[in-house]
Each structure stands twice: as C-alpha cells, then as structure tokens.
Amino acid sequence: MTYKKIAGFLEAPIRVKRAKLRNLYCNLVGRIYYRRIFKRFGYGSLLFSPLSITNPEHISISKNVHIGHRARIEARIDWHGGQQFSPELEIHDDADIGQNVTISCVNKVVIGRNTVISFDVFITDNDHAYEQIGVPVMKQPLIVKKTIIGENCFIASGVKILAGTVLGKQCIVGSNSVVRGEFPDYCVIVGSPARVVKRYSAQSGCWERVPPIPR
Question: Residue range 107-127: average pLDDT?
Fold first, then answer.
C-alpha cells in the first residue's frame, strides 16, 4: 500500500504534488504545534497560513476541519476601558472554511459540524457601542451576544454574520448578505438585512418560497 501511494505521488501532475505536500506540511504543523496551543485541535484538521490567531487557548477546532489561507481568528479576552471576557470559539467536526475569513469572538461563537463557509466571510458575536458623544467608537464598550451557526449550513461568499445571530440546521445564506437575528432550520436567507425567502416543507417535500413581509 505504501509503495502504491509513493508511485501514485511520483506519477501525479506537479499541481497535485504541490497540494499533497502542502497538506502534509499543514498536517504536521497541526500535530506538532497547533495541538499544543489551541484548547483543542482535532485529528485531520488543517489550518493554512492564517493571518492571525488570537488567544488560541480559547479556541476549539474539532476533527477534519479545513480553514483556508489568510484566516483571522480572534478570541479576545480584554477590550479598551477594562472590559474582560472569557471567549469560547468552537468549530465542530468536518467544517470547511474558505480563504480570507474573519471570526471575532469575545463571548461565544459556534460553527456546527459539516458547515461550509465560503471566502471573504465575517462572523462576530460583538458590536461596537457608539452612543457616547465625543468618545471614539474604538474606546467605547463592546456589546456582546452569542452567535451560533447550526450544522450542515452553507454560507456563501461575502456574508456578514453579526452578533446575536442564530442559524438553525442546514440554513443557506446567499452571497453578500448581512445577517442578524434568529432563523429556523432548513431555510434560504438572502439580502441586507437578510430575510428568509425559502423554507423546506416536510409536508410537500419541497423548498417553498416565503412571501415578503408587507411594509
């Protein structure tokens, strides 16, 4: 079996060899380094050249999670003005996260198993207060709410998932949507602000359109 794998590698195109070597390197980094610094870093998980990882001891990455290049994953434990936090950032089994994704956590962010997150997505559980006149926004307190993404979801490119959002199972979020609020299982969400446009009906066995709410 080992001989066949080596022969297959030698016969593969250069691009395939590069991809396999890259994955092997990232796998070794995960086993040797990331498992020591993260709260959890599961078997088979790959983290490709992140831009930044903040306080990894508050971040749990389960098995077979793939996180693309230039990810920014932040678990903040303090903020301007003396705010202190105990963040819990959880990425569950078999999640697939694309390039240039930012995840900002000061309270709790959960990404469910088998969820796919495309490139250029932003996920957060905190907002900047702005009400104090004459005080720069970055020096005002953070407003904190839990953000939960259910299992089997698909988050398309450019989506912004804001603090306090809860997505049920197998929610589909369209490109460039701005999402805030609670959404049920098995629905399609689009827009800015995002709303449900389709839901799966167990009675008909179909994804049915949801009419817009009259203004």
Answer: 97
